[in-house]
Amino acid sequence: MLFRSTLAKAWLLAMVGTLIAAAVPALESARVTPSAALRRSVLEQRGRASAPRVALAGGLVAILGVGMLSLPGSHLEVGFVALFASVLGAILMVPLALVGFIEIVARLGERVGRPLLVFAVRGVTANLTRTAVAVAALTVALSTTFGVGMMVESFRTSVDGWLRMTLRSDAYLSMRQFGGRVDLPPELIEYLDAMPELEAVSLGRGVSIRARNASGQVRRQSLVALRMAPASYKGFEILSGEAQRAWRAFDSGS
């Protein structure tokens, strides 16, 4: 049943996408004579004439996408819609940006006396309906590559910082059995405390309990008790308030 529904969705998506893609050129062809529809120059003239309007629409769509990101309490779905709107708006602004960039390059070529350069770059805007699509696709590909690279690098940096801050000890010791953890024997803890090779020993216990949160919902939460070594304090970051005051209260049993 799931396979059939997936096929039905794929078929529906393909049909709707094909009809939408074919509707625009079909409507354009229906408005002109057959001979004009076959001439590429007519299509290119319309493309260049509509570039400012398309860019304006793209700017509005991009502003809408950026505005959606600033909405309070936004969910993941809203973020994806905002990202799609931002990318779509940038794509729609590519034709006008391409025309402006080519015009600047062409004028520079005329000033330095490079007719071949002018002829080459003018050919880009002469086939704007083709080149703009290729440039937009390349722009999206490059932005995706840079975005994924930044995301991966940010994730690696975050994990590296978290590990450096959290893993303060040289060695960690725990005991496990089938179904959960068991406590370390008290004799082992006393033996470790008495070892002259160890500078300090930090102890911790954790249990999972069901507790009522601030909104009144009963959820499973983790409760951790710690006897920290001097170096263990650097493994925690106080997000608000005075850190020294908080640690003094913690050491006194608060």
Outline the structure in words:
The chain has 254 residues and is mainly alpha-helical. Helices cover 66% and strands 10% of the residues. The protein contains nine helices and four strands; from the N terminus they run H-H-H-H-H-H-H-E-E-H-E-E-H. It has helices spanning 2-30, 34-38, 40-69, 76-92, 94-111, 115-126, 128-166, 186-193, 243-251; strands at residues 175-177, 180-182, 203-212, 218-227. The strands form two sheets. It has a two-stranded antiparallel sheet with strand order 1-2. It has a two-stranded antiparallel ribbon with strand order 3-4. A hairpin with a 5-residue loop joins strand 3 and strand 4 (218-227). Helix 3 (40-69) runs antiparallel to helix 4 (76-92). It is elongated. The chain starts with a helix and ends with a helix. The model has no long low-confidence stretch (mean pLDDT 84).
Secondary-structure map:
Blueprint: H1 2-30, H2 34-38, H3 40-69, H4 76-92, H5 94-111, H6 115-126, H7 128-166, E1 175-177, E2 180-182, H8 186-193, E3 203-212, E4 218-227, H9 243-251
Antiparallel strand pairs: 1-2, 3-4
Strand content: 5-15%
Shape: elongated
* Order of the strands making up the biggest sheet: 1-2
H/E element sequence: HHHHHHHEEHEEH
Distance between the termini: 57 Å
Uncertain residue ranges = none
What is the structural class? mainly alpha
Oligomerization state of this entry? single chain
Portion in helices? 55-70%
- The mean pLDDT is 84
